[in-house]
# Entry
Amino acid sequence: MNLAKTSTVLGLVAGSTLALSAMPAEAASFGTDGILFETDTKVDFEFLESHGKFQSTLFIVEADAKDTPVYTLFTENEAYIMPETDDFLGLCPDTVTAPNGSCTNGFEFKAGVEYSLLLDSMGKPNLPEDSDGKVWSTNVLNEPVSQQAMFSFEETDSGKYTIRFDDKGAGPDADFNDFTITAETTDIPEPATLAGLGLVGGALALIRRRKAH
Ligand SMILES: [Ca+2]
Ligand SMILES: [Ca+2]
Ligand SMILES: [Ca+2]
# Structure
């Protein structure tokens, strides 16, 4: 049983119906401490550009199984456009795409499951022998523990995060330009919330019917 969901449903039933309309998809964490949502939450990602020598792929993983991709966000179909200019620039759709060829991709994060983003250059061209080619957006998942992603939140109407990776390609050079995406959440209703709505609605109808008699 999911505690967050249980308390949400209890809160809905106990609270007024006014509270129901103001249910944001709350992120308990969305950053280098981890990615964790209190309700099922769809996040829309967009690839911006890459500046790394590796040929990398960006995956979503669960923190408990950090080497096992659960979803593929964006793949570098070639390592870069030009090696000498623009610091190994990669662009979509030129060299980088989502699996369906798009420059955007979305994923529904399940409530209460901790996720991370894995930038994986394993087994790809240009990877030095002493590197395993993997970095995670969650600091503690990196070995040794280190920050390999920066999350910056833009206070615009859309409320987008920009996420910039440092892939350790030239050692820990901390350039944070090797792979850059944006992330934007979309509120989606949960089955548990809908069930709660039905329950409250049914109870109100019953009370009205009784009063009418
Ligand atoms: Ca770089
Ligand atoms: Ca690259
Ligand atoms: Ca780097």
